[in-house]
Amino acid sequence: MLIEITPEGYDVDLDLLYATPDNITGRPIYARAAGYLHMDAAALLAHAVALARPLGLRLRVFDAFRPAEAQWTLWAACPDPDFIADPRRGSPHSMGAAVDLTLVDAASGTPLDMGTGFDDMRHESHHGNQDIAPEAQRNRHLLLGIMTAAGWDFYRNEWWHYQLVQPRGRYPVLSDAAAGTRMMPETAVPEAGA
C-alpha cells in the first residue's frame, strides 16, 4: 500500500524534480508533483525526520515512488546501470521502497552542500568519495548516519538514494495505473516488459 508523502503529514520539503524539466531528460516525466512511499518506507521516513529535527535539519525529497513507466523514460535517457536501475530488473523506486533526498537547514531552508547535485552521474556522487570538499563529505556522512539509523539501506553510487533493505522480491514493481497515483501523463504507455 502506498501512502502520499506531504510536507504537512511528514514535515519534509518536497522538490520533486521529475515533475519539472530540471532532470536528466530535460523535460517533465511526471504530470504532477506527488510523492508516495510504501507504508514500510513511509514509517522509516518519519523516523529519519525525527532524527534530523533536533539537529536543526529537514529532509528535502527529490523523488520517492517512481511508476514503472517513468523508470523506462529514465532508462531511455541514461541506460547506465551504475546510476539507473534497468527497468527489466525493477527499481526499488518503482516498488515505493526508495527515496532520493538531501538535508536542508531547517531555519533557512538552505540545502547542505553535498559536493554534487542530485542525479549527477559521476564518480564524485559515490558515497565515501574524497574528491569533494571536506564539508560536503561531512554532510554526506551526516545524511548517511540519519538514514541508516532510521533503518534505511543506501546505494553506494548515489549519495541521495536510500531504500528499504533488500526490497526485490518483497515489494512488487508498480505501474502508475496499478498504484493509482495518477502521476504519469495520460499519453504515457509502459514499454514492453514493464
From TrEMBL:
Keyword Heme carried by entry: no
Cofactor note: Binds 1 zinc ion per subunit.
Gene Ontology MF terms: D-Ala-D-Ala dipeptidase activity; metallopeptidase activity; zinc ion binding
Leader peptide range in chain numbering: none
GO annotation, biological process: cell wall organization; proteolysis
Cofactor field: Zn(2+)
Domain of life: Bacteria
EC number(s) from the headed UniProt entry: 3.4.13.22
Binding residues for Zn(2+): H93, D100, H161
Catalytic activity: D-alanyl-D-alanine + H2O = 2 D-alanine
Keyword Cell membrane: no
Family under the similarity heading: Belongs to the peptidase M15D family.
NCBIfam families: PRK10178.1
This protein's name: D-alanyl-D-alanine dipeptidase
